[in-house]
TrEMBL record:
<keyword id="KW-0808">Transferase</keyword>
<dbReference type="InterPro" id="IPR032675">
    <property type="entry name" value="LRR_dom_sf"/>
</dbReference>
<keyword id="KW-0067">ATP-binding</keyword>
<dbReference type="GO" id="GO:0016020">
    <property type="term" value="C:membrane"/>
</dbReference>
<feature type="region of interest" description="Disordered">
    <location>
        <begin position="796"/>
        <end position="824"/>
    </location>
</feature>
<keyword id="KW-0472">Membrane</keyword>
<dbReference type="InterPro" id="IPR001245">
    <property type="entry name" value="Ser-Thr/Tyr_kinase_cat_dom"/>
</dbReference>
<keyword id="KW-0732">Signal</keyword>
<keyword id="KW-0723">Serine/threonine-protein kinase</keyword>
<keyword id="KW-0547">Nucleotide-binding</keyword>
<dbReference type="InterPro" id="IPR001611">
    <property type="entry name" value="Leu-rich_rpt"/>
</dbReference>
<keyword id="KW-0325">Glycoprotein</keyword>
<dbReference type="InterPro" id="IPR011009">
    <property type="entry name" value="Kinase-like_dom_sf"/>
</dbReference>
<feature type="compositionally biased region" description="Polar residues">
    <location>
        <begin position="1"/>
        <end position="15"/>
    </location>
</feature>
<dbReference type="GO" id="GO:0005524">
    <property type="term" value="F:ATP binding"/>
</dbReference>
<dbReference type="Pfam" id="PF13855">
    <property type="entry name" value="LRR_8"/>
</dbReference>
<keyword id="KW-0677">Repeat</keyword>
């Protein structure tokens, strides 16, 4: 493999044609001049496809290409690296399926000697092939988190008896979890959260060393609390939020000897919670918010207190996601002052430390306040440095915290011995130890990333490998395709799972943007239907040629939608910023907007029960944004045109052009954002308009208006009349239908019984209270609508319809829901926003 095969600039130290003859940084060779290790991690600007010729490096044992900008598929030729021990391709923009061997091509299933598959934080798609795993493999870590993988987990995974850590969280997996998963008796960490798994909850009896378990946010069958959890004596963390658990929480679960955290939020657990067996010195968190717990029993000597209303939730000693831990001084007094940029070491010596961040991808302990686990890591690090006779005086760890990927981040400082700074040789040696994985942390910490290359503050020396210099930030690996940060679109979007399309690709998928595929328009430009090579339909929102209108909204929608995955939120598949074009690529939602159905333009009739289902779907999508997205997201433009209906009339929240994350770069999560008022007249929260302080309750107000729109079929402001005021004035709770006969949409059918209408109206009016503090949270709104559906004899978790065809008007030839009249798919380029004068 030649260095010219890398698309962008390679490290400046790569001189000559022989990597072994001139000691290229990041490259290790054997005595016979064969490449054995390649570490190009954290070269963020190194992009383009991984060369297929990498499969020619037959002696390679370690390949670290993580945390770069690589695009395209994983080369199948990597399967030829039969000596490979370590494969880390995480945190790139890799797409396509997981390659497995065929009669003519190699694949990852051939890597039977490899211990580590680290492929998380990419955009890999397709199913996980059953051929990928076999009993011949010696894998320890399978880390596929935060991709776009679909289908089920293959049962062949259970054949890999050596597995210790499994991460499939944050994908689009579904189906039944294999029942033979409990054959993996060496697994310590199992992450299955944030997927679409269905069927019975997997029985993990026999996984005796399982420590960290997270199966949250799936669609398992409703079930009593699993008895087998109490048999897993090594458990430190149980996280089963939103897994359809019912009934009582058994007392013996709290007697597990190592248990530190139990999170069972948003289930249907009930009865008395007896935590008398819990050891308050070990168990630090019990979170049962949003259940039906009626009472709590604790030991009298337990010092922690439960908070909140027992009937709705129970949270005991809820900790922050971070810890104040910092290495203490070792029986010495720190110097009264050090030179500028110097820091006092744990041994009380002023020095310039080698600083970086250790990132652990699957720690087996949840309690970041643990006073013993971090000192053990310090001792472990020092032992490694000492055994290699490196010039290290001491190490310091601080600020342990969980990041958005549920990784453990630890700030690390390494202090020099014998002088106040490391020379280049010392820095290179330390960087090599940490980046080539010769250092192994204690088992509790699990696999870790190669640390980012930072520097000694006074020397600006590289830690390990130099960063690659590029003339510009090449965001896509396509010729001439990059994000232009000098225009009104702002800086480079931070993606969490969306793909970058080229102009040529989209031109092909739309038949050169033909008129036949023109399915909508707005003030921003047009919407085209496209067909991917897989046959999947997509909706392409294309801005007017050369126009940068809405550029900031364009970037915001990319960043926010690429990291949210929920069946009631429209899926962003990718974007294009190529040849002066600005396009967003979404899943194709065939039945247009809620407004189209209410106005009759789409030809779809919504009766009362169907409207309740639409309200529930939209509420669930919005609750996900408020309560499960990290950081939480305020939509800021909830309205009927931004709620789309799929082929089964399931509601999907769309248009994130005005959305705001509830996070501040300095303060972390915040309660409100002070911002210029934007939104749509009629849906706008009056409190937000008056104070310019945006909160989640602003979305709740807008959703309340949508609920009234569903009830009346009227626009929020029609002929000078405001729907909220009209309902409030006409309401009379002592009369039939609350005296709202004149306002209820006649197409619902007043001759039928509108079961739950009174509760529905009460809920809507709570949502539009003048004060945000008086409005319910979206999670509570979801529960109330679910209760109304049950009153109406409907299953809240059933699909809306087998097909939308049965809901269309009798006349055939109803207009395409994406047509110019019927559907405004304006998305990131809003044209009807309120701008204060």
């Amino acid at each position: 493999m030649k260095q010219q095969e890398w698309e962008n600039t390679v490290p400046s130290s790569w001189e000559g044609q022989d990597p072994c003859g001139t000691s290229w940084e990041g490259i290790t060779c054997s005595k016979d001049s064969r490449l054995t290790s390649m570490d190009l991690s954290y070269n963020k600007d190194l992009s383009g496809p991984i060369p297929r010729t990498i499969g020619n490096l037959k002696k390679l044992t370690s390949l670290s290409l993580n945390s770069n900008g690589f695009t395209g598929p994983i080369p199948a030729s990597i399967g030829n690296l039969s000596h490979l021990y370590w494969l880390d391709l995480a945190d790139n923009k890799l797409t396509g399926p997981l390659p497995v061997s065929t009669e003519t091509t190699p694949g990852l299933d051939m890597l039977v000697q490899t211990k580590h598959f680290h492929l998380g934080l990419n955009q890999l798609s397709g199913t996980i092939p059953s051929k990928l795993f076999s009993s011949e493999m010696t894998l320890k870590h399978v880390l596929f988190e935060r991709n776009m993988l679909q289908g089920s987990i293959p049962s062949t995974l259970a054949l890999v008896q050596s597995l210790e850590v499994i991460r499939f969280d944050g994908n689009r997996l579904n189906g039944i979890v294999p029942s033979n998963l409990n054959n993996l008796t060496s697994v310590t960490d199992l992450y299955l959260s944030n997927n679409g798994f269905t069927g019975p909850l997997p029985n993990l009896t026999g996984m005796g060393v399982l420590s960290y378990l997270d199966m949250s946010n799936n669609s398992f069958d409703a079930t009593d609390f699993p008895f087998w959890l109490s048999t897993l004596q090594s458990l430190t963390s149980i996280t089963m939020e939103s897994t359809n658990l019912e009934g009582l929480v058994p007392t013996d679960i709290f007697s597990l000897p190592n248990l530190q955290s139990v999170v069972l939020r948003k289930n249907r657990l009930n009865g008395t919670l007896d935590i008398g067996a819990a050891d308050p010195g070990i168990l630090k968190l019990i979170d049962l918010q949003s259940n039906q717990i009626s009472d709590i029993t604790t030991k009298t000597e337990t010092s922690t207190e439960s908070t909140g209303t027992p009937r709705s939730h129970c949270t005991q000693s809820l900790p922050d996601n971070a810890s104040s831990y910092v290495t203490s001084y070792r029986n010495c007094a720190p110097p009264s002052s050090c030179l500028s940029a110097q820091i006092s070491s744990p041994n009380c010596k002023c020095a310039y430390p080698y600083a970086g961040t250790l990132v652990f991808r699957a720690p087996s302990f949840p309690n970041l306040g643990n006073s013993t686990v971090f000192p053990s890591l310090e001792r472990n690090l020092m032992s490694k440095f000492s055994s290699l006779q490196l010039p290290v005086d001491s190490v310091s760890l601080s600020n342990p915290r969980r990041d958005v990927n549920d990784y453990l981040d630890l700030s690390l400082k390494i202090f020099p011995s014998g002088q106040d700074h490391f020379n280049a040789t010392g820095i290179s040696a330390i960087g090599f130890v940490l980046s080539n994985q010769t250092y192994k942390p204690p088992p509790d910490f699990g696999p870790f990333e190669n640390p980012p290359h930072q520097s000694q503050s006074h020397q600006a020396l590289s830690l390990g490998l130099p960063l690659v210099a590029l003339p510009f930030c090449c965001y896509c690996s396509l010729q001439g395709s990059h994000w232009d940060s000098n225009k009104s679109s702002g800086g480079v979007p931070q993606l969490k799972g969306a793909r970058c399309f080229s102009f040529e690709e989209l031109k092909k998928y739309t038949n050169n943007f033909s008129e036949a595929n023109d399915v909508g328009s707005g003030g921003y430009g047009k919407v085209y239907r496209g067909t991917l090579p897989t046959g999947e339909l997509i909706a392409i929102k294309r801005a007017q040629q050369g126009s940068m209108q809405g550029g900031l909204e364009f970037k915001t929608e990319i960043e926010l939608l690429s990291r949210v995955h929920h069946k009631n939120v429209v899926s962003l598949l990718g974007f294009c910023f190529d040849r002066g074009e600005q396009m967003l690529i979404y899943e194709f939602v065939p039945n247009g907007s809620l407004k189209d159905s209410l106005s009759g333009k789409s030809g779809i009739r919504l009766d009362w029960k169907r409207r309740l289902k639409v309200a529930l779907g939209a509420a669930r999508g919005l609750a996900y944004l408020h309560e499960l997205a990290n950081p939480p997201i305020i939509h800021r433009d909830i309205k009927s045109t931004n709620i789309l209906l799929d082929e089964r009339l399931n509601a999907k929240v769309a248009d994130f052009g005005l959305s705001k994350p509830m996070e501040d770069s300095e303060r972390g999560h915040v309660t409100h954002v002070t911002t210029q008022v934007k939104g749509t007249m009629g849906y706008l929260d009056p409190e937000y308009y008056m104070t310019q302080q945006l909160t989640e309750k602003s979305d709740v107000y807008s959703f309340g208006v949508v609920m009234l729109e569903l009830l009346t079929g009227r626009r929020p402001i029609e002929r000078g009349k405001y729907i909220v005021r009209e309902i409030r004035m006409a309401m009379d709770r002592t009369k039939r239908l609350y005296n709202l006969q004149e306002l209820v949409d006649q197409s619902i059918g007043l001759d039928t019984t509108l079961i739950g209408l009174d509760k529905y109206v009460d809920l809507a009016m709570k949502c539009v209270q003048e004060s945000g503090a008086d409005r319910p949270a979206m999670g509570d709104v979801v529960k109330d609508i679910e209760n109304i559906l049950q009153l109406a004899g409907l299953n809240p978790n059933a699909e809306s319809a087998s097909t939308s065809e049965s809901y269309e008007e009798a006349s055939k030839g109803s207009r395409n829901p994406y047509s110019n009249e019927a559907f405004d798919y304006s998305g990131a380029f809003p044209v009807s926003k309120l701008e204060p004068q």
